Amino acid sequence: MEAAYGLAITVTMLMTSTLLVSYLAGVRKKPALAVVFALVFGAIELSFFVSCCAMFFDGGYVMIVLSALLFYVMFVWRRGTAIERMQTIYLPVQEYKGQLGELRVDEGEPLLADNLVFLTNDSSFDKLDRDILYSILNKRPKRAKAYWFLNVQVTDEPHTLAYTVNDFGTDYLFKVQIRLGFKVNQRVNAYLRQIVADMVSTKRLPPQAHKYSIYRSSGTIGDFKFCMIRKMLGTETELSTTDEAVMRANYSIRGFCGNAARWYGLEHSSVIFEYVPLFTRQREVPTLVYEEPHPMSTTVIDDDEDDIISGDTRTEIDAAAGRTMALIGGDTASFRPLDGDE
Predict the structure, then answer these.
(1) How far apart are CA 205 and CA 194, in angstroms?
(2) Which residues contact 275 (CB under 8 A, 6 or more apart)?
């Protein structure tokens, strides 16, 4: 164990020195100082590292295995996120505002919820991920009285509590960004209810009173339904072998870590999960050619053909049937009981 600890400390020292050299040369623009620092501290720390390598088989391999595992997880997470961001397309909400307004008042579609909430990583003020609009309009239209597109940002300050809203000039479309400090509990449902109450009080959102309620007053805030969009790797997605393996490992790690419903405190809320394909370039699908159906060929069975059961076998079957009839005490075809003299 001492060998693993010593090797881990030495590698940490080398990594710290490497980061400091990069900072001096790239940020502070002092390459000469970076070279001097690298030569002095690099020589000292490399000597420690070489001496610790002799203890590799005495337990130092534990640190190497753990480091390789952590590096693999970090690489898969970073590369997988980069692949998703490369294929993400953001669409202007203004171009789809009319369709969303028509869907909102379309009595032919069932009302899914008073407030339909989508969580998004997009921090832009007037655009939406194509997957969200695809989910609302194409993948079985989702009718709601108000649509909320929620983005949560964690700030460097510990106790930040702030939000901004873009209503796109409507009273049913809202792009909300909640800014929370890194020490603040991310109770998204509670914060969103507070935002809706503020919007109703300032008349930016119509009241959402319900006819039925266990309380004396039904209130002015309706129900909420949260929709989580999850990407999946389609069978026709054209990725390199390495990138495909990375994406499969990335989705496996995400499944192990849990889902956004737990992260944002929505375990007891009404949540629906939707899976959309990873929109990368698709493999070319071969084109089918239509052919006219051919007439069915009929086969004439010759009655004179021999039975598939041989003559000896047929005789044995008939004899066994006769013995069975005598054993059960009646004629099974006519259900005639045997006479007492028989």
Answers:
(1) 13
(2) 230, 231, 232
Q: Residue 342 has what pLDDT?
A: 47
CA distance 178 to 165: 9
Q: Which residues pair with 178 in a beta bridge?
A: 152, 163
Burial class (CB in 10 A: 0-12, 13-18, 19+), 308: exposed
CA atoms 47, 49, 55, 56: torsion sign: negative
Report the pLDDT value the prediction gives residue 316, as an integer from 0 to 100: 59
Sequence spans of domains, the chain: 2-87, 90-277
pLDDT of residue 115: 94
Q: Copy the structure tokens of residue 174.
A: 């809202």
Residue 164, Cβ neighbours under 10 Å: how many? 12
Please write the tens of the pLDDT for every residue from 34-45.
999 999 988 988
Task: Report CA 203 to chain centroid distance, whole Å.
Answer: 36
List of the chain residues with pLDDT < 50? 301, 303, 305-309, 324, 327-338, 340-342
Distance from chain centroid for Cα 3: 41
So what's the pLDDT on residue 334? 43
H or E stretch covering 101: helix 97-104
Task: Classify the C-alpha dihedral 200-203-208-214 as positive or negative.
Answer: positive
Q: What is the pLDDT of residue 142?
A: 93
Give the DSSP per-residue string, 205-219.
S-----S--SSSS--
Which two three-digit tokens encode residue 133?
Answer: 């609009």
Residue pair 114/145 in contact (Cβ under 8 Å)? The answer is: yes
Average pLDDT, the chain: 81
Residue 274 bridge partners (DSSP): 229
